[in-house]
Amino acid sequence: MREIEAASAYFRQHPEAGASVLASEAKQPAGVAAERKANLVTAQSPDLSGALQWPDPEPLGPELPPVQAFDGQLLPEALRGFVSDVAERMQVPPDLPAACAILALAGAVNRRAVIQPKREDAEWTVTPNLWGGIIAPPGWLKSPVLGTVARCLHQIEARWGCEFENEVAEFEGWKQERELREQAWKEEYKRAIKKNLPPPVKPDESRAAPVARRLIVNDPTFEKLHEILRDNPAGVLLLRDELSGWLAILDRQGREGERAFFLEAWNGDNPFTIDRIGRGSIHVPACCVSLVGGIQPARLRQYLDEALNNTERNDGLFQRFQILVWPDFKSGWQLVDRPANAEAAARAARVYESLAELSSDAPLRLKFHTAAQELFYAFWAELEVKVRGGNLHPAFTSHLSKYRSLMPSLGLLFELADSAERLGEVTAVSLPHARQAAAWCEYLESHAARIYGCVVSPELHAARQLGERIRGAALPDTFSLRDVYQHHWAALDTPGAVREAVEVLCALKWVRLAPAKAGSAVGRPSECYQTNPACREGSL
Questions:
Q1: What confidence score (pLDDT) does residue 538 get?
Q2: C-alpha closest to that of 53 among 476, 534, 480, 477
Q3: Does 172 map to a domain?
Q4: What pLDDT score was predicted for residue 523?
């Protein structure tokens, strides 16, 4: 009451100030006018510095929702030592190499194995190709982690490349010999015709040219990738150092066909035919692409904010990234200088190589073991409650709906990884591996909540950014919207974004609308805000 009485007394003594404030309200948008009225009685004037007291500011809270900590027991036993070794030597969260290792596993298998999720319904099979990536700020070794994990696959492809070169050399020698035999046959044929003798039988020699086996692609054109898939029916792994570049390419005008192709390739078993004048028709019975890459949080926010609010681009492409991890990054660091765990790396390499040598002509077909089947049915029922409940953001709902195939895919991959030395004996996914798959889905759901949460409430992110600037004294005690957006800070580079951030901070008592100055010029006054002194660095 004292603050209100003091404010009333001030405006009785200075009626021109009250008139100025009310005049400015009439020219502001409804939301701004309402905010100004709400703050009028507590607005601090130069003469009331001691009369009006600031309320205690409410904490901003963490910017990102919490995520589950990674547990090494989530991984198949064959890959645990390798992932742990990479994480320790590079001093990165184990989530990063773990996600890359699972995506590399999916790329090594692709269409070489499938799983039938239901016990009796054989019509539904799942191909375990997966899309995903790692989300990390700059400087957190995204590229080295990707490169280290993918080295196993690069070594396989390098060996295939050497074999292909030998096959080409041998094929060229065979072609020369065939030409000589055909030439000799022609000569004999001519002599037989001249002598009126039965002509010799033409040699029936046909041999297909060798085809380059591929496991990884980096930056193929849409048409070239289609040709590679024609020659590699098992599928390939698309490895992108920066996912933001790949996503930007698909968003360009005129790339609609390429975008549609990747949407088909995510399923792993859809046919795709390209008909072109000059190139003819190329048919791929089942397009299958796994995908792995890295992306920075700022670029992720920007992409999702644009994609999820754009009707044409919101086609579910990003929701197909099932293995996405965004862990917490601790500032601590320690020097680790020791040799890599050669035994763990060699074991992981054997797993990838064994799976990559499986044939897609006769893929392994697995089901769930009896106990694992019941676990999957329980997982599925719980998932459908979430997906059909109508309580989640549509983008998050679309993402979770993909877990219907994610859980069986992970169970299959984990079973194959731990059974790489006896693949011929594997017929079912065991209960332990099904439990691992279900636990992975729970772990990934917490990361997905963080990812989509930063877009569903962008004003909270902007408020957090503005709060950090206020705490660090990057703004004066009284500032305007322009004082903020002219700096082009992340998430605060437009008047609208700054206004939304300020509204949040007003509600949390970090700032409040400053009164218009007496005798201000006619016209729309500058909209200024005052900072709660308790929000400066060292005060909270």
A1: 55
A2: 534
A3: no
A4: 47
